[in-house]
Specification:
The protein is an alpha+beta fold. Helices cover 42% and strands 22% of the residues. It has 3 domains: 196 residues, no CATH class; 62 residues, no CATH class; 103 residues, Immunoglobulin-like (Sandwich), CATH 2.60.40. It is built from 12 helices and 16 strands.
């Protein structure tokens, strides 16, 4: 970063863009489905066009592991920059301070200013709670539920809990959470590497400090960067800007800098743990991409129907009943056909809706089918049920054949 540049505009732009992204993602869709949403009703995760069902939990686990390792990689490489630039708690703290300042400037009456501040906090808490719920309930369905007053018990409790916590955070907690409760800063402080990005007061230029206190006054955590690395520091860069404003106004240069490793240490040292976590993250991403790409385009499962009863016809044939579950996991509508594998010397007939079964993307269907088995197939115990698409077998399952 050039000596004359300021951090604040970049940090605020990043905060606004990341916040806007969190608000917009639930409204984005691929093939009519949410870009990213955990759907409790279908027990599936909608993930950028792919639908990961509960029976594909390993893919969801991979996605969680990627988030964890990427977070550790970013932490080991960029330190507390997450706290100062991207953490929602920091953004809420910045918004709370901005609201307090604006409300105070609108009126000199403290009671009116306090009332306005609480109204804005309530509105913000409602927005945050709604935004969280949009990752579980589609926004259009959410608004329809709100309008009709049928939010539902689980969704209502999640909304109310989030609303209350965010409001208390804005009105009472604010920066205190980062100072006293947040475990992330403590963990990161203990795992810092020599090559981790830090915000540092240049120890070689201590004598140039004017002792003006500008860095201390702008620090949201109330710490003095001149005292060295401190667990409360969130690397937001406000002190850096304040120091440059003062020093450059006197023809000098700022005394506070972002640096990968302390300036007092000679030479650059590789951050091996960051490299390790980065490599693991990359490996997990490749594994997830391969797993999603190789997912079956359709699934087929079967269980006995009619309580496992077998019906015998007048010609001696037996009829078995089944419940068949189909799922189209592709991103396009597909037409399927069901058929049984031919068994030499036996005559079998599949009865039910077996032809031209149209399923929309990520749709599933339950069918009731019957299998008529000729007397000559008395030795058959299982037969293969095939799911075909365009004459090609895309899934199969075993049909148990009961003879009595």
């Amino acid at each position: 970063m050039n000596p004359g540049q300021r951090i604040a505009p970049k940090r605020k732009l990043f905060q606004w863009l990341s916040t806007l992204l969190l608000l917009v993602i639930p409204f984005l869709k691929i093939n009519g489905e949410s870009l990213l949403r955990l759907d409790a009703a279908s027990r599936s995760l909608l993930f950028f066009g792919a639908t990961i069902r509960i029976d594909e939990f390993y893919l969801f686990l991979l996605a969680v592991l990627i988030c964890i390792f990427l977070f550790l990689f970013i932490t080991l490489l960029f330190g507390r920059v997450w706290c100062g630039w991207a953490c929602p708690q920091t953004t809420l703290g910045d918004i709370a301070e901005w609201v307090e300042e604006k409300c105070a400037s609108l009126t000199r009456l403290k009671a009116v200013s306090a009332l306005l501040r609480q109204v804005v906090y309530l509105a913000l808490a409602a927005l945050v709670a709604s935004n969280l719920l949009w990752y579980f309930v589609p926004p259009d369905e959410f608004f329809a539920r709100v309008a009709s007053g049928r939010m539902g018990t689980a969704a209502g409790m999640l909304f109310a809990t989030t609303f209350l916590l965010v409001y208390l955070d804005l009105a009472l907690v604010k920066r205190s959470f980062c100072k006293t409760l947040c475990p992330y800063g403590r963990v990161q402080f203990m795992t810092m590497e020599p090559g981790t990005l830090t915000l540092e007061f240049d120890p070689a230029r201590t004598e140039e400090c004017l002792r003006c206190g500008a860095c201390l006054r702008v620090c949201p955590m109330g710490i003095d960067i001149r005292e060295g690395a401190q667990v409360e520091c969130i690397n937001c860069g406000r002190c850096l800007d304040a120091c440059r404003d003062v020093m450059e106004g006197r023809g000098g240069q700022g005394l506070i800098h972002y640096t990968f490793g302390k300036r007092s240490e000679r030479g650059w040292r590789a951050n091996w743990r960051a490299i390790l976590f980065g490599g693991v993250s990359l490996l997990l991403v490749v594994t997830l991409i391969m797993g999603v790409a190789r997912r079956e385009e359709a699934t087929l499962s079967v269980r006995m129907g009619a309580n496992g009863e077998v019906k015998r016809l007048s010609d001696g044939s037996l009829v078995n009943f089944y419940l068949v579950y189909l799922e189209n996991r592709s991103s396009a509508p597909s037409t399927f056909t069901l058929a049984v594998e031919p068994v030499p010397g036996s005559r079998m007939e599949l009865i039910g809706p077996v032809n031209n079964i149209l399923l929309q993307p990520n749709d599933n269907r339950k069918l009731t089918l019957a299998l008529k088995v000729s007397p000559s197939a008395s030795t058959v115990r299982t037969v293969e049920l095939r799911l075909l698409k365009g004459g090609r077998v895309v899934a199969h399952a075993a049909l148990p054949v009961l003879m009595q």
